Amino acid sequence: MAKRTPALKVAGLKKAFGPTTIVDHFNLQVYAGEAVALTGRNGAGKSTVLRCIVGIDRPDEGTIDVCGQKLKETDPLIRRNMATVIDDLDFFPDLSVVEHLDLLARAHNVPDADGVVDDILDQVRLVPQSGQLPGTLSSGQRRRLALATAFVRPRKLLVLDEPEQRLDVEGVRWLADRLNQELADGLAVVFASHEPYLVENVATRVVHIGEGREEVERDGAPGLIDADPETEAPTPAPQPKPQQNQPKKKPAPSQGRKRKRTR
Amino acid sequence: MSPEQPAESTETVDTSAVDPKELLAQIKEWRTGRATKTLWEALQDTYVVVLAVAVFGAMIIAAIFSAQTDAAACTSGACISARTLVPWAVLAGVAALAISVARLFGPVVASAAEGFWLLDAPINRARLLRNRLILFIVVAGVVGAALGALAAALTGSGGAAIGAWAAACGLAAASLVAFAAAEQGAERRLTTRIAGFVFSAAAVAALVLVVGIAAGWFQVVIGLNQEVQIAVIIAGLALLLLIISAILAGIRLGSIRRTHLTSGGSLVSGMAGAMYALDFGLAHDMVVEREALERGHVRPTRGRGVGVAQLFHRDVQRLLRKPSMLLPVAATIVIPYATSALGLGRFAPIIAGLALFATLIPIQNGLRVLTRTSGLARCLPYTDGQIKATSIEASMVIGGVWALATIPAFLGIYPDALTGIVAAVCTAAAGILGAARWTTAKPVDYGAPMLATGAGALPPGLIFNLLRGFEVVLIITALLVFNLPWYLPLAAVGLAYFFVIHFKFDLDEMREQQAEQQKKLAAERAKRG
To answer: What is the pTM of this model?
Structure first.
């Protein structure tokens, strides 16, 4: 039987800033269909691990492989396979919300880019803002746009750093559903989070980073995690508030463009 | 209050209860109380700087007087045309600069702290802001007058003309700042935008006229005496506009919204920080961001095709949305013709290359965003080289048109046709690649080891960033100035293209590769015994 190649393999990762070692001998393997949640207190090193995984920071020691290939941030194949939502995402100040997504979808040769863009725009509830320039968006809307950039393009591995930041309760619930859909589609997900609902409802494994690091496998039943006493009981789903601005009907596909859908 | 008495829903706020002047005086007193030095002591500590400024200032004034005397003696056609028309160009330029800067920042601004602590209080906002409005108008007037006097003096005008142009430029700048303040109070931006565009176009037209007259393309139509009278009339009209605008601005001061005041204030502090760190790229980004914020919304357009060409398509779309970006580039076409006509043809590649470099920077905004952080480039399945190469394609098309339009000028400068064509192409390439190099600059790393200089320890990036882009233009165009064989400038363009677009110096990666090689070598040695 052929050996499965992990979507992400981190071996012996060490990262220090000056005399302070943030991460030491960190190992992680994530396979397709798995979601690993990195948890831990602020400053434990979750974001440092993720920054090394996506290639923003270079580890002092250790190796990182993405889909069987050694990590090189500028490699087009790595860029194609790994979608990231980290805080360093920039936006073109003079391109609208929908144009950013359209640009990414087409740059990745997505067939029926219009349809994909319109669907994701609807999911992240940015249809009314589709023509706005990024500078005019609220921080929550910018976060939704950042998340949309990860879902509008092909990917095998999804790396998210605290994706729940600045999302409202409905947004967190949508994100959990969306990530579960990604897992069902056979993608691998690694995310750092402080949101118990997201961790319990998405993660198949929880890696607690910090003092007394531990790794806990989820047994398959949604919400049952033995990570630590604080997360033993499944957290109830956040209750969304009714939305005022989002149109009830599905949006016109191209915000003024002709609808042309083949799916 | 009796139960029958209704709640105070119609209560009016008495803004006269708190005097803004008293508040500001109180803040000043707190600050003065914390001061550890008197002004005199501070001057004593920095006497070297004070003396240097005094000596340097005296040298500049002496040089201006000398230049004025020399220029006044010149009676050639070029001198007369300059004396007649340069002050006009400076007047239009000062007016354009004053209204553009005023519109960009406010002109009335407040810091974030003032916005939170003072503007939130029930005080008379107009009284709080009045002094700073007057200050901005006066500063604009003084700077405008100084520039007008300088231009008139350097072109050899007499005392009366210098005074008239100083008054015209100073009052024009002051009146336009007051006008922008009045429009800010009325929350109108279109009028100031149109005024800025009109004055910019007038400045460019006046400069082209100066060059054209000096080159013999046009005839002088205004006499020197008439010109002084016109300058006085302009000063009078500007004074009238200043009085009306200042009154209107004063009336509307109280109605300027807090967000409008503090957004200008935060832009001022951000730009000041960027300029203090000599990070001109960051300052440019702030201006671009501000313009986008002002626009706020666009009509989305559909992409075409798939693949990396999308980046080019979006650059074209940017140009279609803001075609005014092309006007300065188009204006630089006149430079090779003008330098040739003025007998400075030898330096045409350097002057035109630098002008093209400066005017192409706004067109490469897409490249700037893709390279200032790795976040967006990481989302695209292409190498950094592919992304950069595609992001300068729009500039290359514009540069190609520019080269075609300037070939006749270069054919007049160089003895053979091949060299002339190569000069036009290489000058355009120098401008494009210089702009690309400037645009892809990374912020200065203050954590890196410092360089010892006469001005103290400086991070190496700070020094190199000051030269960034210029060096590419100068190296390529210097080969043309020295009239070296045609293939050398072309080779320099090829090398510069590789260096700017595809070369990436990654010290960490080189170390990693070295360690890998050493490991392999050690393993080989171990095998051999």
So the answer is: 0.80
